[in-house]
Design goal:
By secondary structure, the protein is an alpha/beta fold. It has helices spanning about 25-35, 70-85, 105, 110-115, 135-160, 185-205, 225-230, 240-250, and strands at about 15-20, 40-45, 60-65, 90-95, 100, 125, 165-170, 210-215, 265. It has eight helices and nine strands. The strands form two sheets. Strands 3-2-1-4-7-8-9 form a seven-stranded parallel β-sheet, with helices on both faces. Helix 2 runs parallel beside helix 5 and helix 5 (about 135-160) runs parallel beside helix 6.
């Protein structure tokens, strides 16, 4: 067992986490952090549970869901509630997010708009306010923002019963123009930071704490070329590790932060200063 990870005692109530965006990076590290502490982790992602994943409890506690489709989100919420047989949820982590780049999916059928914007999109180019088509704006906001609301509304009774915590994963891109994160992604994360405060005010009387974490440049598979130039300007002069983010999420979901709500924790090596 990793150092510093203390499993729950046998006589303690086993706690349950629902985590969206669990398949890689920060989500995968979060699964490992909570599972090592004895939590039951119900994972959610667009993909089916991979057969080669070493996590033994995964197939039974995985829900495949397309958060860009409100109807499928509602279907998944009903399934989550069925799986919470004791009616309690102790933590909900909204980590799922999409950040489309300039590619055929975003550019198809909208070449005239791109010409008017003076833009020729490469396969990995940042999509700005002029080059992001309406369908992409709606899809990004449905996954990154609105699904967070639907999950909270659908699971509020279980969260209240478990005196649970919600952690929304925002981004450093929500507070500044980022060279790689697109306009739809950045504005959805800014909206999510504001939503965190609103949810904290609304759910606090029910005993539910709501906080956010705002990661900076984290060493995952989705890093953009040129990130090394950003790292040179970060006070700590390095990328963050997914495990460092997972530890902060864990802290916000436990008694270590029992009087913290409505906060947004910056995890970026000082990049925001």
């Amino acid at each position: 067992m990793p150092e510093g990870h203390t499993p729950q005692r046998i006589d303690e109530e086993r706690r349950t986490l629902i985590l969206t965006g669990a398949s890689r990076g920060i989500g995968h590290a979060t699964v490992k952090r909570f599972a090592s502490a004895g939590w039951r982790v119900i994972t959610c992602s667009r993909h089916a549970f991979p057969e080669n994943c070493p996590w033994a409890a995964g197939p039974e506690d995985h829900i495949q869901v397309d958060l860009s489709d409100p109807d499928d989100t509602a279907r998944a919420i009903a399934e989550m509630r069925e799986r919470l047989t004791d009616g309690k949820l102790h933590a909900l982590v909204n980590n799922a997010a999409i950040s489309p780049k300039g590619n055929r999916q975003s550019a198809a059928g909208d070449q005239e708009r791109q010409r008017n914007a003076g833009s020729r999109l490469s396969d990995a180019e940042r999509l700005n306010t002029l080059t992001t088509i309406p369908d992409l704006w709606r899809r990004v906001f449905e996954v990154n923002f609105f699904s967070t609301i639907w999950l909270a509304q659908g699971l509020v009774a279980e969260l209240a019963a478990g005196r649970g915590a919600i952690v929304n994963v925002t981004s450093i891109a929500g507070s500044r123009v980022h060279p790689f994160a697109g306009a739809a992604y950045a504005t959805s994360k800014a909206a999510l930071a504001a939503l965190t405060r609103e949810m904290a005010a609304d759910l606090g009387p029910l005993g539910i704490r709501v906080n956010a974490i705002a990661p900076g440049e984290i060493d995952t598979a989705i890093l953009s070329p040129g990130t090394d130039k950003i790292v040179e300007t970060i006070p700590l002069r390095r990328l963050g590790a997914p495990e460092e983010v997972a530890k902060a999420i864990y802290c916000l979901c436990t008694e270590q932060s029992s009087y913290v709500t409505g906060a947004e924790l910056h995890i970026n090596g000082g990049q925001h200063v």
